[in-house]
Structures are given as C-alpha cells and as structure tokens.
Amino acid sequence: MGFELPEIIKISKQMEDNLIYKKILDITLTENSKSIIKQGMSNLDKRKNEIIDSKITSVYPKGKWIFLEFENKNILMLGEIIGRFSYLINGESLPPKYHFLFKLDDGSNLIFQSSLYAFLVVANPEEKKLHRYAGNIGPSPNETEFTREYFLDLISQNIKKPIKAVLNLQDQISGIGNVYINDILFEAKIHPKTKVLDLTNDEINKLYDSIIMIIKNSIELGGSTDECDLYGNTGHYKRLVDKNTAYCERCKSKINKENILGSSSYYCPNCQKLI
Predict the structure, then answer these.
(1) What is the mean pLDDT of residues 202-216?
(2) CA–CA separation, 80 and 177 (whole Å)
(3) Residues 6+ apart with CB under 8 A from 153
(4) Which of 55, 244, 266, 272 could make an S-S bridge to 71, C-beta 3.0–4.6 Å?
(5) Which of 143, 154, 118 is nearest to 133 (CA)?
(6) Cα 60 off chain centre by
(7) Counting runs of H as helices and runs of E as strands, what totals does the chain give?
(8) Distance (Å, rounded) from C-alpha 1 to C-alpha 263?
(9) Which residues pair with 100 in a beta bridge?
(10) Which of 60, 55, 48 has the alpha carbon at shortest distance from 100?
C-alpha cells in the first residue's frame, strides 16, 4: 500500500490549503526517522535549515510526488509515500510515535508517520531536475497529455514487457502503482503477466479506457478507503480486487493472489486468463 495519484492529489490540495504562505520554524527528526535517512530517502538531517524560516509559496502534485516550493527557491520533495501525513492545529496532541515533525509559524504541526518508507528530500531546482525519480515523472492519467495516442505509442515501445510492468513505469505513466494496477487490469479483463505483444487492439483500447475510468473515479471519491488524508479521514474509493476479495463479482471464480514483479497481484483466473 501507499499513496498513488488520487491520494496524492487530495493530500496536496489539503497541504496547499493549510501550509501556503506559512513558514516552517523547526523540523524534528525522531529516532524513528533514522531508517529512512539510512536508506538515502531523506536528507533532512543535513539540509533542513535550507527550508526553515522561508515561506511556502507553492504546493503541487505530480505522479506519486508532492512538491513544496519555498520563497528562497528551495523545494521539499515528498514521494513514494507509504505512511501517513497528519495536520494538527495548535493544541492538538502529537501521536506517541512519528518520524518527522514540521513546526509551522502559526502553531500548527505537520507530522509524518512512516509505515515502510518515503522520500522527504530538500533540493534546489537543478537538483530536482536531476533527481532519479522526482526529476523523471511522466504524464498522469488525469492530465491532458495522457491521450489515447500517447498511450498507444507508449505500448508500442514496450511490447516485450508484461503489462503490469508497463503500467508501473513512472517515467511514462505516473501516479499509478500496485493498488490501481490490480483494479485496472481486473476491469479490463487482462492478466497482469500478459506480454504487451500478446494484447489485441481491442484489449489495448479497453485498457486505456479502464485506466481513465478507475483513476477518475478514485480522484472524485477522494482516494482509497485504505488511505488517510491529513485529518485522518479515508477516501471513498473501494478497491475492486484486494486481499479481502474472495470471489470475482462477475463470474464468482475464486480470486487468485500471486507475487508478480515484486508485489501482490489479485486477479480472476477465469476473466483474466493468461494466454
């Protein structure tokens, strides 16, 4: 689990509503943050002073990332988030365990609690462009650039790959990961191991339609019921297939779970046959 495009869009908007034109007065890194720093996913231990006492002038989402831009032109990049951000107004108690605390100049706090990992990186504009992940984000399904023609061209460039791998190429389709890939492939009736080369034109078009429909629906519903926003509220998008799905809603076959490309895939062996 982790934040994908619908959750990122919702949380980014909440951050914009609450953080814009405020200053971070201090950043606390607890003992729990050491694992994230050790993995090279955060440089706040060394560079937090570069964003302290500078106004936040912009907050925006892109793919699986949220970018906070500061008056001094530095950027706080938050991405690949498996965990939870919480916004606490003055007087609200801090949770017993958290990883990072951002103290704001109006007395409020932004907290990050990691469930596994996340990027929390300070960068200047040039470093952002050069970042291996944050600097190489492709169009998202909710953006005008993500046309059917763009998708067909993308597919044609990756014909030897399994379709699950192609849908997870963040430099070409940003913002969707394992959660929504499972639902998209279920909706399109395509097995996650299917090679792009083996897809028919009808299946490719159905896949594009499924991507647009699933992501649009989840964005409108505020993201997944499994993820919390800044206030602890979950979204209203209920996943089509996950660990709690026993049987296919279409044909009543038992849903299979399989580790494919390093993550859990849920699919119907009857509706999503591997040819």
Answers:
(1) 98
(2) 10
(3) none
(4) 55
(5) 118
(6) 13
(7) 8, 8
(8) 10
(9) 29, 112
(10) 48
Residue keyed to tokens 């300070």? 122
Residue in the block written with tokens 């706090």 = 109
In whole angstroms, what separates CA 267 from the centre of its chain?
21
Identity of the amino acid at 193: K
Buried b / exposed e along 61-79 (16+ C-beta atoms within 10 A)? bbbbbbbbbbeeebbbbbb
Structure tokens at 57: 């002038």
3-state secondary structure 94-152: CCCCCCEEEEECCCCEEEEEEEEEEEEEEECHHHHHHCCCCCCCCCCCCCCCCCHHHHH
Q: Which fold has domain 5-130?
A: N-terminal domain of MutM-like DNA repair proteins (3.20.190)
Instruction: Pinpoint the residues of the chain covered by CATH 3.20.190.10.
Output: 5-130
pLDDT reading at 1 higher than 80: no
CA 213, 215, 219 angle in degrees (round to 5)? 120
Provide mean pLDDT across the span 44-68. 98
222 phi/psi in degrees, rounded to 5 = 75, 25
Question: CA 56 → CA 8, 68, 200, distances in Å?
Answer: 18, 7, 48
Assigned CATH topology for domain 148-267: Helicase, Ruva Protein; domain 3 (1.10.8)
The DSSP call for residue 49 is: G
Average pLDDT over residues 222-239: 97
